[in-house]
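agent: user wants the full assembly modeled, not chains individually. Plan: 1) parse entity lines 2) check alphabet per entity 3) run joint structure prediction 4) return tokens. Steps 1-2 passed, two entities, 471 residues total. Proceeding.
--- entities ---
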Amino acid sequence: MNFIIKSVILMGLLSIIFGILLSWFNKIFEVKVDENVSKILSLLAGANCGACGYGGCEALANAIVKEGVDPTKCKVTNGENMTKILITIGKNPLSIQKLKPVLKCVANRFFEKKRALYQGVEDCRETVFAFNGEKSCEYGCIGLGTCERACPFDAIKMKDGLPIFDYDKCTGCGICANICPRNVIEMVNWNEFGIVMCNNPKKGIDVRKECKRGCIKCGICIKVCPTNAVSWSKNGIPIFDMSKCNLCNLCVEKCPTYVIKIQRDEVLLLVEKEPEELKV
Amino acid sequence: MLSNLLKIIISAAIVDNMVFIRYIALCSYVGVTNSIDASIGMAFAVIFVQTIATAITWIIFHLFMQGLEFLEIIVFIFTIAALVQLVEIYLKKNVPSLYKAMGIYLPLITTNCMILAVTFINIDKNYTFIESLVYALGTSFGYGLALLILAGVRERLRLSNIPKFFKGYPIVFTSMALIAIAFLGFKGLIK
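--- prediction returned ---
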């Protein structure tokens, strides 16, 4: 019986000592946290992706409260929580614009034209230094999946040599667009965008030589548009003014290489509640 | 005395490497070797916690636990968990930079099997206080070394052209096994 009493005493003493020590430490080494910081931290996405330029969500929450940094630097937080954060620090929540990535290239392995065979490090950024990749086109997607590996949310899958974006998982953080050495991923408005899915600024005949599906600068989309929403941009690729577009889809159908994509969702990004209801 | 300590530290770090020879702490080993930065943070946190935990558990065992050896597991786990908590609270207030550097690894280490194993081995081998501290340092250095090696290998692997069925964990385990075989070569370094 002796050892039972002994062990009870030992465990009891140890737990009492550590319990007292822990509560005492908690008191004397208490770190005062700003109320707003913890509130914003709980509203932020908590992915710690670092896309905002700060070391994790806690650092951004601190910076928002103490240095007045713009909370929309976090592209990951969803609309409702971002609205709450903006209200918490007293800013107008209607200033958010959420973006999503779109690939400006359609040359998968069926449409691309190759000029060499690349064997080596499976990384687009390395390939750029090695004779600028194996595809003839020096502006399109290289297709070695650097964006796939860079995506912290597992939203990109490579298929037939092109990245496919899964917009259910995508949070619009923009890491893929930043890491792409060809800048072929464009961040567009989440709900409405019109884009030519080709990045090659050369003349039509040269584009034809380098790729089976590229923008050949024929200008049909500009001529056919009834609302003048399409115009030439500086580098010769048509751009779309979505405020004028009426979704007639004529340009998409008439494009000889089918590289135009236009999309407008009726669901708006911001929840359509009154800001008063969202107050935390 | 000194040569004895040197023997202990070398055998703990290299010859009887915790990961490669004893197969202890494999879960956290595979978990944090994604990048070299993470593994360096983990290595230093382990060194820190391992040394403190060994010191405290040695004292508790030799002062209070005569005849109560069967309570080893409970008491040691309890002590290590409470200790890590105390250290974390202290660091958060007084050394915020260190707290930030160690970050999530400190609470993670509470459940690291290597910390517990080393405290047991110290008791089993009847080490003195100084010897057990040196042994703890040696094992945690060995663990850090193993972390760095595999992290370096994995950073290379990520960019290399691996067959599809080897992608992900299979190639990590294969390279771990190969490194372990290499470490077998140190057997017999110390008599």
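agent: reporting back. Chain B touches chain A at residues 60, 64-65, 67-68, 71, 74-75, 78-79, 82, 85-86, 89-90, 92-94, 100, 158-161 (CB under 8 Å). Chain B has one domain: 2-184.
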